Amino acid sequence: MTHGYRIRPRDAATEQIECYILKNNLEAHDRLPSERDMCAMWGFNRTTLHNAIRWLTEEGVLYSRMGSGTFVAPKKLIRNLQDANGFSSAARSAGREVGTRLVSFCVREANKQVAQKMHLTLGHRVMELVRVRLLEEVPVLLETAYLDAERCRGLETYDFSDTSLYKILEEHYGIRIARGVEKVSITYTDEEEAELLAMPEGAPVFYQVGVVRDEGDAPVEYFKSIARSKYIRFASELIR
Fold first, then answer.
1. Whole-angstrom Cα distance, residue 53 to residue 236?
2. 203: exposed, middle or buried (C-beta count within 10 Å: 0-12, 13-18, 19+)?
3. Model confidence pLDDT, tens digit, residues 18-56
4. How many of the other CB atoms lie within 10 Å of CB of 74?
5. What is the 3-state secondary structure (H, E, C) of the chain?
6. 89 burial type by CB count under 10 A (0-12 exposed, 13-18 middle, 19+ buried)
7. pLDDT-above-90 percentage for the chain
8. CB under 8 Å to 78, separation ≥6 — which residues?
9. 14-28, 43-57, 75-89, 168-182 — which is least confidently predicted?
10. CA distance 82 to 35
């Protein structure tokens, strides 16, 4: 005896919304019909439709504006794990509007972890650069970078609100990023991270940590970052 599979109401509503976006060629920031109209179109109750919209919002497909309605969200920015370019280059290549907010920039003594990753002695002076990166004015990435203060003297004089770190390193210090090693895992925001990224405390985020090296294989930067999965996803290209 076989049993037919019955799709859940929320999943059915989700499919209807996604099909509507495709059939009507809706693009980023296009507005969907009102919830009342969508319920009438497809015969769903408000609770079912609202649950579907909430799920698609969490997945980064939709976003809502209070009093204005529900809109198609821009596609997630894909970060290729094998791409040596920084966030700004990747975002601009995808046609996205990029912004940066400087949180702090200071010189401190390298702790055991930073010294080990950068092949420096414990207590060596390093620059700590903390930035929030934005897509279409939405904070999506919190980055912390450590660089050798002796090798990058004067770096603090540059404006990082609209200039790429890697571009400055290449053009003004002759340091060209060649390769890197990084790991991606899942973590949860603490109070400070949640405030900087405008999201709830304890929310899940991607945690990325790694070291990038120059053409001579010397460590240039040790970095840590947390990314909002609603706006960014990571991918890796397999080549045989």
1. 29
2. middle
3. 999 999 999 888 999 999 999 999 999 999 999 999 888
4. 19
5. CCCCCCCCHHHHHHHHHHHHHHHCCCCCCCECCCHHHHHHHHCCCHHHHHHHHHHHHHCCCEEEECCCEEEECCCCEEEECCCCCCHHHHHHHCCCCEEEEEEEEEEEECCHHHHHHHCCCCCCEEEEEEEEEEECCEEEEEEEEEEECCCCCCHHHCCCCCCCHHHHHHHHHCCCEEEEEEEEEEEECCHHHHHHCCCCCCCEEEEEEEEEEECCCCEEEEEEEEECCCCEEEECCCCC
6. middle
7. 59
8. 90, 94, 232, 233, 234, 235
9. 75-89
10. 42
Which is it for strands 219-227 and 138-148: parallel, antiparallel or unpaired?
A: antiparallel
pTM of the model: 0.72
* pLDDT score, position 109: 97
Backbone φ/ψ region at 43: left (φ over 0), alpha (ψ -120 to 50), beta: left
Tell me the C-alpha to C-alpha distance, in Å, between residue 79 and each of 129, 134, 215: 21, 14, 22
Contact (CB, 8 A) for 227 and 81: no
Query: How far is C-alpha 80 from the chain's CA centre?
Result: 12
Sign of the Cα pseudo-torsion (21, 204, 212, 135, in order): positive
Quote the CA–CA distance of 175 and 152 in Å, as a whole number.
Answer: 10
Contacts of 182 (CB under 8 A, 6+ apart): 81, 208, 209, 210, 211
In degrees and rounded to multiples of 5, residue 221 shows phi and psi of -145, 135
